Amino acid sequence: MSQQPQPTTPFPAATILGYPRIGPRRELKRALESFWGGRSSAEDLTVTAAGLREGTRRRLQAAGLSEPAAIPADFAYYDQVWSAASQLGAIPARFAHLRAGDSHTGELDLAGHFTVARGEGDLAPLEMTKWFDTNYHYLVPEIGPDTEFALVASDSADAVAEGIAAGVAQRPVVVGPLTFLLLAKAADDAPEGFAPLSRLDDLVAAYAAWLRSFAAAGAQWVQLDESALVSDTWDADRAEVLAAAEEAYATLAAIETTERPALFVSTSYDTLGRDALAALARTGVEAIGLDLVKGDLPEIDADLRAALAGTTLVAGLVDGHNVWRTDLDAAHAKLTALRSTAGDGVPVAVSTSTSLFHVPHTTTDEPDLPEQLRSWLSFADEKVGEVLALAAGPEAAASEFAAARAARDDREAAAGVHVPAVGERLANLTDADFDRTPYASRVVVQDQTWDLPALPTTTIGSFPQTTELRQARAKLRKGEITEAEYTDEMRAEIGRVIELQTQLGIDVLVHGEPERNDMVQYFAEHLDGFAVTQNGWVQSYGSRCTRPSILWGDVSRPAPITTEWSSYADSLTDAPVKGMLTGPVTILAWSFVRDDQPLAETANQVALALRDEIADLETAGIGIIQVDEPALRELLPLREAAQADYLDWSVRSFRLATAGAADATQIHTHLCYSEFGEVIGAIDGLDADVTSIEAARSKMEILPAIAGSGFGRGIGPGVYDIHSPRVPSAEEIEGLLTAALASVGERKLWVNPDCGLKTRGYAETVASLEHLVGATKAVRARL
Asked: Any idea which residues carry the catalytic annotation?
């Protein structure tokens, strides 16, 4: 394709791909939950959102992003994929009655927007899953042959106009059309074999209208996130995907430049292969983003250099997905190498590798962190400074480069980063440390020990975290109550949870985890090598936020962590009580992990700490122990060639944690919001006695993979979607159980919710569990 005329406004020399949206003090979370709870109006919510957007603009301007279009406009009320779907009219037919005016083309108001996201009554919400290899979630669009794509809302364009009115020429950020369709699923009524990607031409027409609306609002550049192009694991053939991408972007680039903004196609989370880079280069888009933190430097030969002439390469050199201070010397060396191989005709700008919504706002908001550790860290605001320093270069930013160099040297030499005793224990491991007695032998012992009914019922671990529990933890931190008073409050809650489960008739009980603020942070607070933040919140989905812990040094367990609470719960009942642990891969995935050694080594350090905890639980009389690994699929590399190595070390770390358990000890694990079919072999390799998985929101779509794999251990496909406030009926749950029985034998099938109940209220939890138990009894009666 012939070269498009250069945009009137050049691409900024320094930029970021996105910024935290939830607010420095989780202002959006509180506003959303107030609106959902009926305590505030839609107008109140929009005012809060506008204030957050204005605060971001001013914050980034003050940080030094002053060039036109350097500041992204990437706000979303729930997530960026659902934001795109709702603006483009891709709203499932079951929600058509919520659309304004004509049910085919009308937009949703805010209440309708959240009804699709969260469900209501008999209306099931959109399915939710993980965004690439991160702990961020998105709502999965449902696309069929008859889905009508049309620009029905102007949220993203309005944000651009809002910025211009405030004196800031922002760059709108939207999910690209290829990624949108590759992340979508076929609608339930779509014919067998239908692929959402087949609707690309129709979607591109809607994107063309979207681009024109951005131009009309005053946008000079637009960022289209196409991280799907770094993956080679889609169902579609990669060559077909790249051909589709080339055609789509050639079509969009062919729009007269007076009618559209300049196009910046951004990619993150891995290497954009030469084939994809070449395909984009041929389209005439004005800028292409490369992740050079997780990805490799591109190989640019003469042909590719000619195709890229005039196209800006945006080098993602500052890690947007982790919190360690950038090695500016190494990053500058990459930048120099890219400029050299690209040649004088290809401008190179500097950016973050991903959006910064994966990290907290600023390290200056963490006064409780040790100063030495804080000096090693870089959150969103600090990363903006690093981008600017790299764009300026080592001479103009000499002090910034020197400070980064000093921090790196200090971190390497600091006490606790490398602990000889931890290394020696790892070095002494043998293959026997990773294997249990074969399942066929130990299941006989477990059946005799536990004598559970067919379709045993249980929950995933946590029960609702009430305001009173959160207040008790806050009072303990402030010294307003004693440790003994806090323990009494936690024991009282454990007693209530045990009594409730007994009344409901649940077979395997849990203590409810009232003492845990977070399933990872709780362990981080009790393990050496970790630090926790005070305000390090990041968005997980919707209003849900987490504070990832910082894994900075070698990991070990100085004392038992969970035995006191599990033992107390066990003393209150004759029913079996599960011990509850978080697995090594999930602790890594949901923490900011050190980047100075292989993940496999760090995972094994955590696994050994958990192995010691399991031994102590057994000694305390706890013989059913759940080791949660909901993030197993999350870290799966986007490139197929790297997946086998990851699955090998991740599975081995779980087995290292659990292989010391006695034959009578029943080891459970739990996985959620994952494409399980892709890792069914790894799930089997975990060698857990019982595996519970998310399945309710996806309507048991994992079952064929389970049945086809010959999975031979206990399995609990979730029958209650806890990520929605709706209460499933007993009939709905009974239908899911009936479907599960068709794929899973009655002696292997367990009955449980999709995930822990921490985020739910007690009223909906009790009603849902009553229906779960009732449905189970009805199905048992037919066996």
From this structure: 723
